[in-house]
Amino acid sequence: MENIHRRKNWMIVLLSSLLFLSSVSTVSAHHHPNHQEVSEQNESDQSDSGLASHSKSAILMERDTGKVLFEKNADEPLPPASMTKVMTMLLIMEALEEETITLNEKVRISENAASLGGSQIFLEAGEEMTIKDLLKGVAVASGNDASVALAERIAGSEKRFVEMMNEKAEELGLEDTHFKNPTGLPADNHVSTARDMAKMSRALLQYESITDYTGIYEDYLREGEENEFWLVNTNKLVKFYEGVDGLKTGFTNEAKYCLTATAEIDDMRTIAVVMGADTTKERNSDVSQLLDYAYNKYTTKPLFDKGQSVTTFDWLKANKSNVDVVTDDSVSIVHEKGVDIENIKTQIKMKQDVSLPLTEGTVVGKLEVVDKNQVLSQTDLVVSENMNKANVFQLFGRTLQSFFN
After folding, report:
1. How many Å apart are CA 272 and CA 267, to the nearest integer?
2. pLDDT at 3
3. Which of 265, 300, 335 is the last residue of a domain?
4. Which residues are named in the active-site annotation (predicted)?
5. Could you tell me the CATH number of the domain that includes residue 258?
6. Would you call 316 exposed, middle or buried from its count of C-beta atoms within 10 A (0-12, 13-18, 19+)?
7. What whole-number percentage of the chain has pLDDT above 90?
8. pTM, whole model, 2 decimals?
9. Which is the most buried residue in 123, 194, 324, 378, by most CB within 10 A?
């Protein structure tokens, strides 16, 4: 493979390293759900034993970095109840991104979907409802019927959708999660952990528009019609804790009261998961205390925005020169407030097995954040435009230009 960087690219790398010398305790990238998970700095602080005292397990995570700020029995497999719908919503958002479904498309409700018990929006067999409204039904009211209707539309059957859920769990590296349905209704070996729920939520929150749904406190379906249905969010913290805009509650007799919550305050987004609380009051109290702890003790500093140009891709055999290479996701630092933290540097490592043509978004390298020769994080670098092979005239012209330069 040819040397794809000119001297100016190395200058950019050096300047980037100097520019982002900063204090850090943990740095990582906000990963796209389809990307391989990189090493996370899961340095939890369990000295505050009063946190999550009512819950069997819990975790507190900063979203961009994946840094674990607190954990309690975070790897204990437990029934997740309707928090299962975090994965269901993740597959829905992926399908919307891939345009295999659209928000305004109407879905005909099957007998199977309409027959679901538990939390529901009372869909009737043969009724048609838009994907947008069904998604509201899942995100706000935790509708089991809406979840299955969407599962059937996306995968063709509920069974195939569950297979997709487990495939996605494996892709995300969720070793202690196994799904039997898209709803969270009780089933043997339908389990997850607080840590896996937080990782799932990081993947879901990559789709920023999801909080437009999970952050709704109340709304209507079929508004103005005879069968109008009032949606009220099962996550009361959306209304009563400033900054909370998701994600999913859960309850069954076996699972007890569970909640995966997310909040964004001062540009820092956190994820708090509690499982197995005895009452909704205790569940909400545990989550509120975790969020208080996060925002009282920690802060973040962004390094790169998603899509920010880091260097250029200048390849003699390509039809375009100086194509921007950009970060595929945001990169941040999270650290304790008022604490001096060590300097870091960034470095670019380009892949050596890249071949033309390249489509926009193709991974061509990694941005590494390094502290004392230890790689703290990696995020994918992608090309910002399509690139094809240069034609004969382009090659000839560039060869001459290279010769005279």
Report:
1. 16
2. 41
3. 300
4. 82, 85, 142
5. 3.40.710.10
6. middle
7. 64
8. 0.80
9. 194
Chain centroid, CA 308 distance in Å: 19
Phi, psi of 299 (to 5 degrees): -145, 165
Nearest in space to 28 (alpha carbons), one of 289, 392, 366, 390: 366
Q: In whole angstroms, give the CA distance from residue 370 to residue 386.
A: 30
In the chain, how many domains are there? 2
Q: How many helices (H) and strands (E) does the chain have?
A: 11, 17
Question: Distance between CA 11 and CA 383 in Å, rounded?
Answer: 19
- Pairing status of strand 218-221 against strand 229-232: antiparallel
Overall residue count recorded for the chain in this entry = 405
Q: Which amino acid is at 213?
A: Y
Q: Which are the catalytic amino acids?
A: 82, 85, 142
**Count of CB atoms within 10 A of residue 47's CB?**
7
C-alpha–C-alpha distance, residues 123 and 227, integer Å: 10
The answer to whether 291 and 58 have CB atoms below 8 angstroms apart is: no
Torsion from C-alpha of 47, 49, 50, 51, nearest 10 degrees:
80
Residues 348 and 328 in one domain: yes
Helix (H) / strand (E) element for 275: namely strand 268-277
CA angle 128, 134, 135 (to 5 degrees): 155
User: Residues forming the annotated binding site for substrate?
Assistant: 248
Tokens of 234: 């099962």
User: Binding-site residues, please?
Assistant: 248
Nearest to 344 by CA among 377, 299, 380: 377
pLDDT of residue 143: 97
The CATH number linked to 13 is 2.60.410.10
The pLDDT value given to residue 207: 94
